Amino acid sequence: xxxxxxxxxxxxxxxxxxxxxxxxxxxxxxxxxxxxxxxxxxxxxxxxxxxxxxxxxxxxxxxxxxxxxxxxxxxxxxxxxxxxxxxxxxxxxxxxxxxxxxxxxxxxxxxxxxxxxxxxxxxxxxxxxxxxxxxxxxxxxxxxxxxxxxxxxxxxxxxxxxxxxxxxxxxxxxxxxxxxxxxxxxxxxxxxxxxxxxxxxxxxxxxxx
Length: 209
What we know:
The protein is an alpha/beta fold.
């Protein structure tokens, strides 16, 4: 891609917005009040705003390889705390996607350098669910099932945090697990029962908030 094209596209986008609403950017500059925190994958094919059909200001977005929520990742934890405590979002979404390169890499026996400690967290998901996954004969089906299970486990990781536990209990904030099917464009709700998960893990992970 010619970088000049990016700036030409930007001018086109500005004009399109102003044609519809001359005050669009003035209003946008006043601040944000998103209802959703979206934690998704950095994959270039999966853009949060496009797949949800939302506009700038509607969703607070954090993306990383394979949509992970890792307790020692200060970037993710800072985003989570700001979105939940300061922006007071009503929903936190973990959105994975089929054909995820990070998940596929975690299924392979390979030394990937600096990616090794990151991918180990996905391998841990495989270990937790290896009986189910190893029973799936088709490799591609196994791969996509791990994508779903990884979303589920990242929702569990969300519910282990104090900020999420507090928001769920005090203002009924909701946690969701979704998968985007790159091959069809469809967004799939995994219908994760986050309250049941929270109840199940309370004995060990309750932080008393």
